[in-house]
């Protein structure tokens, strides 16, 4: 004999709705802080997420308890250390998933292939497959480069909304070589070209003697990474179209792989 179903009273789904709303609001706070690595005052954060200051204060307190946000001595709120630890775990998984495809690109071009992610106001290398040449471009995994003068950095900037990209840049763009773009207006125009072409170039803008081509990839949920191929200038000349086409095609494959 089957048991009779238990009677329920009251609007049971309400707590779940409240929980989902709290998660959505917390996510909005984290996204606002992601767009502003230097941090926001509590009032600025409340305005950014369009919530009452008292609500944002409660969210910040709860998130700080999990080290997802932190408050500086002056009260400004920024992302906490737990975000970096979670990101590192995700990056390791990302590198593992994409490595077989990146190996194909290295075999095709016989050049170094890098995988990098946005890390605050910089680009961080999370995987590298070195070229099979004695003369090759190489950077250490974990190394951080500027965004405005690298192929992967510019590709990542171009994948963001324009204002969000510009907010990540310092007030004065440092010049690393005679070819570095140091004008924000010129960089804005460069990012527009990258968005249209789907590929970014570094023509000795970060390091003299090294050029690179890069393209952004997406997981469909807002997370972005970039593939780049750095090449000694003497092997880069005359191969720009070949390198760009190969990198763009692999970036498209990686995006399809990540988005299922």
Question: Can you tell me about this structure?
Answer:
With 260 residues, the chain is of the alpha+beta class. The chain folds into two domains: 14-79, Winged helix-like DNA-binding domain superfamily/Winged helix DNA-binding domain (Arc Repressor Mutant, subunit A); 83-259, GAF domain (Beta-Lactamase, 2-Layer Sandwich), CATH 3.30.450.40. It has nine helices and eight strands. The protein has helices spanning 14-35, 42-49, 53-65, 81-109, 151-158, 162-168, 184-197, 233-236, 240-259; strands at 69-71, 77-79, 113-119, 122-129, 144-145, 200-203, 210-218, 224-232. Strands 5-4-3-8-7-6 form a six-stranded antiparallel sheet. The radius of gyration is 22 Å and the shape is globular.
Quick description:
The protein contains 9 helices and 8 strands. The chain has about 260 residues and is an alpha+beta fold. Strands 5-4-3-8-7-6 form a 6-stranded antiparallel sheet. A two-stranded antiparallel sheet has the order 1-2.
